[in-house]
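Changelog note: in this version the structure field was regenerated for every chain. One regenerated record is shown below for reference.
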Amino acid sequence: MTPTAFKRSVANKVAPAKLSPALTALWWAGKDNWEKAHQIVMREQDADCAWVHAYLHRVEGDHDNARYWYRQAHRKPATGAPAAEWAAIAAALLATKPS
């Protein structure tokens, strides 16, 4: 799936099939369903979910918590617009997703 197709899919009622937990959470975040996205990343232990978790807390305005999750993801805290970070996370995760 391309990042453009992923972004367009947010208009649908259900997430695309076979997304990783991190991408599924990011998809729900794109639908402005913070709670659903947060529930997903809280169940996972990998760096990709930690990155999405950091993004969610940044969007929420909890910057201390976001910094913690950026460290867990081995990423520098984002400084740009949240929409740009959402797109960057989507592109990165889609690029590493196995076919």
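Spot check on this record: The first helix runs from residue 3 to 9. Helices lie at 3-9, 21-30, 34-42, 47-60, 63-73, 82-96.
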